[in-house]
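Researcher: Good morning. I'm working through a list of sequences from a screen, and I'd like to move beyond sequence-only analysis. For each chain I'm collecting a predicted structure so we can compare shapes side by side. This is the next one on the list. No need for commentary yet; just the structure.
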Amino acid sequence: MTGKSHPAVTRRFGIGLVALALAATACTSGDAETQSNADPADAEPAELSITPEAGGEEIAPNTPIRVNASSGVITDVRVDQVVVDEAAAEGEGDGDGDLYAMTGTLNEDETEWVSDWNLRPGSEIVVTATAANEAGEETEFTTEFTTQEAAPGQRLELVSNFPSSGDTVGVGMPVVINFDLPVTNKAQVENSMNVVAEQETVGAWNWVTDQMAVFRPEEYWEPYQNVTVDLNLAGVEASEGVFGVRNYQIDFEIGRELIATMHVPDHEMIIEIDGEEERVIEVSNGAANRRFDTTTTGTHVMMERYEQLTMDSATVGIPEDAPGSYLVDVQYAVRTSNSGEFVHEASYNSAIGSANTSNGCTNLRMDDAQWFFNNTLMGDILDTTGTDREFEWDNGWGYWQKSWDEWLEGSETAEPQSTTDGTPGSVHGEDL
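Model: Good morning. Structure tokens for this chain:
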């Protein structure tokens, strides 16, 4: 299946924007050739048809707009959307209009245009299209209709996302999207989430749960580039009767490439930055007396970090006074799993560099812990080997534990997404 913007078969019109009172979207086109030597008197005027038809009410927001031209070619399509459902527009700023600028895909002979994204629920829609005949004479046609509102309690919203706009992250960073409601129409939602990178990257979305979607590249991100995630969720039907009501955009930066490696029996961590060895740190890992205190083997992605942290075994299922329980204050802690593994300062551990005695975490001396904390980023990689406890793929951000083929199996579309070519399929409702 080709992407929406595949240059061999389609041409996507560019974007324009009109500022309207509440919220507006606009799509303007292009640059189709309209000059001709044909005699205007002999040329039939171009004719246009637009669906949904004029006067339509309560149109499903996931209905595509289609513009067709006969006796001519389409030269411009503009879609303006004004939200009349105040609840859907609540919380939007004055600068959000750009998020709703509609684009569309023009077929090869420039006679059919189809909107790329869905429509905003509870909106008044105005579509203005222009076509030119063989002599270059233009015909303009306008149609208006309204879309169905998203009912209270059935509005798909974004709860959280990692990374956040403005973050600089490591080359292993996944894009994690958490929704407030379960998603059953996963293919349409996947195709509504477009990842754009400065350097072409192939990746795919994966559904960890019905409310969590994660994008991971096939290989680590190339360093030193900007990435944008356009969540075109407005109008997508996430499940029966549940519609997205707004769009979001996440802009972040991939920083330098930092890869840390540990072979646990060696009691050291090797840090490489952009392929060059930067630092060797002596460590003490899990004592491995039982599964719980065995450091996991696998590819870890660095997560949240704390300058000071109270480590309490009760948070991972070992209550106070139970065998193996602990309660200790540490500094400079960087999480590497959801099962309680951190890289952190452990000045109390005299075995650093000589023996593995921890409860599963990676213990560092104070100066090394402070350096590690200050010089690593969320999304950096820690590759660990040498233990018999395998790191689970869904334990924190263990997504690199899956092979690329396994990762694609978790995508509803089962199609890779290029960060330069667009999403692989339709966002619209079936049979619409």
